């Protein structure tokens, strides 16, 4: 979201609701060629040690909820109405809290308030009453939450430390300033602080405060806030002893390589390669190149800008005052639908867990989901691993165990594509591929019986790139830039590509090589398009292993 006054190309009003009620949608089937559907007999072209290691189960397609075909099974969505950024991610007294940008009264972006859900395991979420409601004075934009263990704010007591939310109040005048609300009943009810705002620069684009406790030697420390001056493409850092009064520390930016705006920063330390003696800091910033709303594609706009919104990160150092980057930013996720990613405060065992909003401002308000709109990505545990000589963010999804419904080992793939005999509604596919003689190999999911509708996750051997192709993934016509192919360079490791793909009713999240590369994309397939197939082109690839785990 961008400033109301300076960004006229951003849709401020709810667009006409797309003709999206299930049954009346036009499913996009431009290519009606047929591909063989083979679900029995010999599954793979080569029999070399083909081995079914698990019973095939769940072959009947699980039904989508009537009238709600895109509601995910393993991703958080509000029961009704609009959701964007995750806010206030914090763990407290055995529960993970997910607050989020929410319109309590409609499926379009408006009336910003903080919705709320809780979970004990990051897998199943229970929606709670609205936590912080926008009012006539101000809307409640993005921010963070802390547990004020030392009761520095005085909102609680030593025995019952308060939860404190630090959010952006977006006033009717357009001014954006940082404000507080607190809860002394484990996040059930929230009170806005009377002295709001607590930090005001007189700016109309100062927002998205992420606050964390910065420990110094022994038991000392102070609160650090990162926020953005969005249009200036700057992260501004402040410190406080009590969350009430703030003084400036430093600034990071402005970004020079980019035309868009910066939003939703986060800053946290991580050990490199698991070595606690070698810590680097990661600064996450979401980028919103709102200037490219005017598509179809213009030749001189780089593919990066066509991507719309995305979350990037810098690796560097933070000395308690200033962040310095070791190099340019990289994408946390190379798909289209991973925005406003931020991490939990106080997660158990020092884990660093990120969630992001699974959408893109380029078309977020048009997605054809009906009475609800907006889903979160799977939570992902982050770590730093040295890849090609530099610390690289690794993302590992957190999802339920599920049950294995199909498994194969050591088989050849190709030349025909082979449809698996299982069709779970939500699932993970784990595949270990070797290219063999193939030019391209991969998986197809959300595939219709005639093969015309499909989402392809494939590897181009010569280019060394992994792609997710959603150009024929179902309903792709609700937004002009929705049909797309996302690609990222993924070097083979020991001659292999390891792939984990999480497939839900309206999304695909692909994790390659253990999470060093990820692609997250929304898709809106016909619920009957639920075949999974494996294929190669130009030769035979090999699958060391293939496992399908139902997660719904
Ligand atoms: C990011 C964002 C934030 C803002 C919020 C408003 O998607 O634009 O910068 O606080 O959404 O809903």
UniProtKB/TrEMBL annotation:
<feature type="transmembrane region" description="Helical">
    <location>
        <begin position="42"/>
        <end position="64"/>
    </location>
</feature>
<dbReference type="GO" id="GO:0004575">
    <property type="term" value="F:sucrose alpha-glucosidase activity"/>
</dbReference>
<dbReference type="Pfam" id="PF08244">
    <property type="entry name" value="Glyco_hydro_32C"/>
</dbReference>
<dbReference type="GO" id="GO:0005987">
    <property type="term" value="P:sucrose catabolic process"/>
</dbReference>
<keyword id="KW-0378">Hydrolase</keyword>
<protein>
    <submittedName>
        <fullName>Putative glycosidase</fullName>
    </submittedName>
</protein>
<keyword id="KW-1133">Transmembrane helix</keyword>
<dbReference type="Pfam" id="PF00251">
    <property type="entry name" value="Glyco_hydro_32N"/>
</dbReference>
<dbReference type="InterPro" id="IPR018053">
    <property type="entry name" value="Glyco_hydro_32_AS"/>
</dbReference>
<dbReference type="InterPro" id="IPR013148">
    <property type="entry name" value="Glyco_hydro_32_N"/>
</dbReference>
<feature type="region of interest" description="Disordered">
    <location>
        <begin position="1"/>
        <end position="32"/>
    </location>
</feature>
<keyword id="KW-0812">Transmembrane</keyword>
<dbReference type="GO" id="GO:0005737">
    <property type="term" value="C:cytoplasm"/>
</dbReference>
<comment type="similarity">
    <text>Belongs to the glycosyl hydrolase 32 family.</text>
</comment>
<keyword id="KW-0326">Glycosidase</keyword>
<dbReference type="InterPro" id="IPR001362">
    <property type="entry name" value="Glyco_hydro_32"/>
</dbReference>
<feature type="domain" description="Glycosyl hydrolase family 32 C-terminal">
    <location>
        <begin position="422"/>
        <end position="549"/>
    </location>
</feature>
<dbReference type="InterPro" id="IPR013320">
    <property type="entry name" value="ConA-like_dom_sf"/>
</dbReference>
<feature type="domain" description="Glycosyl hydrolase family 32 N-terminal">
    <location>
        <begin position="75"/>
        <end position="396"/>
    </location>
</feature>
<dbReference type="InterPro" id="IPR023296">
    <property type="entry name" value="Glyco_hydro_beta-prop_sf"/>
</dbReference>
<keyword id="KW-0472">Membrane</keyword>
<dbReference type="InterPro" id="IPR013189">
    <property type="entry name" value="Glyco_hydro_32_C"/>
</dbReference>
């Amino acid at each position: 979201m961008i400033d109301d006054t300076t960004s006229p190309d951003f849709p401020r009003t709810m667009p006409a609701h797309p003709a999206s009620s299930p049954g009346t949608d036009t499913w996009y089937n431009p290519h009606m060629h047929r591909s063989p559907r083979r679900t029995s007999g010999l599954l793979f072209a080569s029999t070399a040690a083909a081995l079914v290691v698990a019973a095939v189960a769940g072959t009947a397609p699980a039904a989508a909820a009537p009238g709600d075909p895109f509601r995910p099974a393993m991703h958080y969505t509000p029961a009704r109405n609009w959701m964007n950024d995750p806010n206030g991610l914090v763990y407290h007294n055995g529960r993970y809290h997910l607050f989020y940008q929410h319109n309590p009264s409609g499926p379009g972006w408006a009336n910003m308030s903080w919705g709320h859900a809780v979970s004990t395991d990051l897998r199943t979420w229970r929606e709670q009453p609205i936590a912080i409601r926008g009012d006539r004075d101000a809307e409640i934009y993005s921010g963070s939450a802390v547990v004020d263990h030392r009761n520095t704010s005085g909102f609680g007591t030593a025995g019952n430390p308060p939860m404190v939310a630090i959010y952006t109040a977006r006033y009717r005048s357009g001014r954006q300033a940082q404000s507080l609300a607190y809860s002394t009943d484990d996040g059930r009810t929230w009170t806005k602080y009377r002295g709001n705002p607590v930090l005001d620069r007189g700016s109309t684009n100062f927002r998205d405060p992420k606050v964390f406790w910065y420990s110094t030697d022994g038991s000392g420390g102070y609160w650090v806030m990162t926020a953005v001056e969005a249009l200036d493409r700057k992260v501004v850092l402040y410190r406080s002893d009590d969350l009430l009064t703030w003084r400036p520390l430093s600034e990071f930016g402005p970004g020079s390589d980019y035309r868009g705006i910066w939003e939703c920063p986060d800053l946290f330390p991580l050990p490199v390669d698991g070595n606690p003696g070698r810590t680097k800091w990661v600064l996450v910033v979401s980028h919103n190149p709102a200037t490219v709303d005017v598509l179809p594609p213009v030749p001189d706009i780089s593919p990066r800008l066509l991507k719309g919104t995305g979350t990037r990160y810098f690796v560097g150092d933070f000395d308690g005052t200033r962040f310095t980057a070791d190099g340019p930013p990289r994408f946390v996720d190379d798909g289209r639908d991973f925005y406003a990613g931020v991490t939990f405060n106080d997660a158990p065992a020092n884990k660093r867990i990120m969630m992001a909003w699974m959408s893109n401002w380029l078309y977020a308000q048009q997605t054809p989901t009906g009475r609800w709109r907006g889903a979160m990505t799977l939570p992902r545990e982050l770590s730093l691993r040295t890849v090609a000589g530099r610390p690289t963010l690794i993302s590992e999804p957190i999802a339920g165990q599920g049950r294995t419904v199909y498994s194969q080992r050591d088989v050849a793939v190709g030349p025909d594509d082979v449809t698996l005999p299982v069709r779970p509604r939500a699932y993970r596919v784990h595949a270990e591929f070797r290219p063999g003689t193939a030019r391209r190999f991969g998986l197809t999911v959300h595939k219709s019986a005639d093969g015309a509708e499909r989402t392809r996750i494939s590897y181009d051997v010569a280019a060394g790139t992994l792609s997710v192709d959603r150009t024929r993934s179902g309903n792709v016509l609700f937004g002009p830039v929705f049909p797309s192919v996302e690609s990222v360079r993924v070097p083979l490791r020991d001659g292999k590509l390891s792939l984990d793909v999480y497939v839900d009713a309206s999304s695909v999240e692909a994790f390659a090589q253990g999470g060093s590369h990820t692609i997250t994309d929304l898709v809106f397939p016909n619920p009957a398009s639920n075949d999974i197939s494996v294929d190669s082109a130009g030769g035979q690839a090999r699958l060391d292993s293939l496992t399908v785990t139902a997660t719904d």
